[in-house]
Amino acid sequence: MDFIIQNILNAMQWGSFYALIALGYTLVYGVLRLINFAHGDIFMVGAYISFFVASFLISPFTGLSPAMAFIITVPLTMLLTSLVGVTLERIAYRPLRRKGAHRLYVVITALMCGLILEYSNLALLGASRLKFPELIEKQVWRFGDVTLTNLKVMVIVTAVLVFLFLQWVVTRTRVGMAMRAISYDKFAIPLMGIPIDRIIVVTFVLGSGFAGLAGLLFAMSYPVLEPFMGMLIGWKAFIAAVVGGIGDIKGAFVGGFLLGFIEVGVVTVFPSTYRDLFAFTILLLILWIKPTGLFGIPQSTKI
């Protein structure tokens, strides 16, 4: 029983990372019908930003304690990472959108933006891995053979709070109402006086900011950073969002945790080298049975 509980906790931690990134994917897609394939690399950029911010704050120059440095690092990382996302939207996506470019060109642009972020990081910082500084003293609680750490609890609780916050924003606020309106008909919305560019910027701020938060928490949990760390986890989070129902906040959250449980469940039975093979196969079967995802609904195009 302890073995099962331990694996459930591990799955919830991994699912939290996937869910945080998948929420950014689904938020942007829900508003713009744009698959932002650079989102996984924004997660990577957030991890590096948190590294440099935290390293500066705990340096002798500032003299801050690690706990105080962590409190400052969280909002700074989210703010700076959101600026990266907004910059991509302003430079890469907005000109294409205003010119009415086909979605295929926008997707290719997103892929190129991700590669630019990866190889810019590689060119500037090199291929050497960086070790994230310890900001929070690790506390381990043992319940029989079950081990639980304060960082694991923080990751899981953060994912749940972010999901609830985004659900509240989308369903209960005027900004969320505008987001849903743009996703329904982006051509009629400007005629109603809604500043579509401003709403899109808010969307990228939220999605990129929470990707940066995920990067910070991931770097604290697995404190080794490298330029391509966002590639595979970004693709997995995208697949989790699709399985949950791309464009649906609840679907992205559930899809992220579902992928986490599948991966950990596979590792407990088979060698770890089979993890991705079985995980993607199971997710493919889910999409084969329900192509719109668990919470997605078929969409019709108006003529």
From TrEMBL:
Entry's Gene Ontology molecular function annotations: L-isoleucine transmembrane transporter activity; L-leucine transmembrane transporter activity; L-phenylalanine transmembrane transporter activity; L-valine transmembrane transporter activity
Membrane topology: Multi-pass membrane protein
Stretch forming the signal peptide: none
InterPro entries: ABC_transp_permease, BCAA_transport_permease
TM annotation in the entry: 17-35, 42-61, 67-92, 104-127, 147-170, 199-222, 228-246, 253-271, 277-297
GO biological process: D-alanine transmembrane transport; L-alanine transport; L-isoleucine import across plasma membrane
Alphabetized PANTHER family for the sequence: BRANCHED-CHAIN AMINO ACID TRANSPORT SYSTEM PERMEASE PROTEIN LIVH, HIGH-AFFINITY BRANCHED-CHAIN AMINO ACID TRANSPORT SYSTEM PERMEASE PROTEIN LIVH
Family of this protein: Belongs to the binding-protein-dependent transport system permease family. LivHM subfamily.
Protein name per Swiss-Prot or TrEMBL: Branched-chain amino acid transport system permease protein
Protein species of origin: Desulfuromusa kysingii
